[in-house]
Design brief:
By secondary structure, the protein is of the alpha/beta class. The chain has eleven helices and twelve strands. Helix 1 crosses helix 2 and helix 5 packs parallel to helix 6 (176-185).
């Protein structure tokens, strides 16, 4: 199991571009294989944050988790992602997803047929990345993306100069239909608020089965995990702080379903909060559950900062 780390704030104030660069450089120096950024209402644009992290570093992989599909046309998303990848000179991991009804409604958009929407979105993305990496010519002869679906219908010129095959396309998914679509049409899943039991029983099996049925390679099984390494004397207080901050997710149906499918009694128990010994035990449990990529989102709480958790977590891997 690989352990990546978020370099843009996920649970607190939004990070500036300079902070993202600094954290990416630090994550690379610590030896993390991947650096991740979110797409949040209060955060720096995810694609620009990926470019900032990538151009400030040399080797570390960068990824997004996750960019809402309802906000971007798939060809616009494909071109932006291909351009970012070209700018940093190495593959990126494009994490996308339908988000949730509340976030989409905030933007005045309808949240309709999300699984079908994401399936067709992936079909268009995959075709665009294939066309972009093998252009037929320059300018208007670059390539053509054609799609006739229930959500998207198009026949568009598409080109992205210098485009290379995408590192991976991953989908934020926790519902049964979305997990099936994810396995069949993408490189893997990014779960949120999934404990070890949820990964083992609810997430990994349907995604893996759908990928196998579609003839795709074994999928990435990743999850965004709020993580804080704190002194033993601060563990209970940190968990109570997490429950107070994140408890509202327990009333949100998509997240409630995945929490209920796991072993955690409450959302604070999903978060990986503890001293080094406890966090090492949880990492092993996630690995045994089938997680391929643990995406640590450092949770700033009394006794833990981004820097302290990043340093201590890396020592446990």
């Amino acid at each position: 199991m690989r352990v990546g780390i978020f370099v843009s704030e996920t649970w607190g104030p939004g990070s500036t571009i300079d902070e993202i660069r600094e954290r990416a450089v630090r994550a690379e120096a610590l030896g993390y294989p991947s650096a991740w950024v979110p797409y949040l209402p209060w955060a720096t644009d995810a694609l620009m944050a990926m470019q900032a992290a990538g151009t400030a570093t040399e080797r570390i992989e960068v990824g997004s988790a996750v960019i809402p599909t309802f906000f971007f046309h798939p060809l616009a998303m494909a071109r932006q992602a291909a351009t970012v990848q070209s700018a940093i000179g190495r593959p990126v991991h494009l994490g996308i997803g339908c988000s949730n009804p509340a976030i989409v409604a905030m933007h005045g958009l309808p949240f309709e047929r999300p699984a079908r929407h994401v399936q067709e979105y992936l079909e268009v993305l995959n075709q665009a990345f294939e066309v972009g990496a093998k252009p037929a010519g320059s300018r208007e002869q670059a390539g053509l993306v054609q799609h006739a679906g229930e959500i998207f219908e198009m026949g568009s010129i598409y080109g992205a100069p210098g485009a290379e095959p995408m590192g991976s396309v991953l989908v934020g998914a926790i519902g049964p239909r979305m997990l099936a679509v994810t396995g069949a049409f993408s490189d893997g899943v990014i779960g949120t608020w999934c404990d070890e039991g949820a990964i083992a029983r609810h997430v990994a099996p349907p995604v893996t089965a759908a990928a196998s049925e579609a003839g795709r390679p074994a999928p990435v099984i990743a999850s965004v995990i709020a993580t804080a390494i704190v002194p033993k004397s601060r563990v209970e207080a940190a968990r109570e702080a997490a429950q107070a901050e994140f408890g509202f997710y327990e009333q949100n149906m998509p997240y409630k379903r995945v929490i209920d499918s796991g072993d955690a009694a409450r959302i604070a128990d999903v978060a990986v909060i503890g001293d080094e010994e406890e966090v090492a035990r949880r990492l092993a449990a996630y690995r045994d559950a089938g997680l391929t990529d643990f995406l640590a989102a450092p949770y700033a709480v009394e006794g833990a900062t981004w820097e302290s958790t990043a340093e201590k977590l890396r020592d446990l891997v």
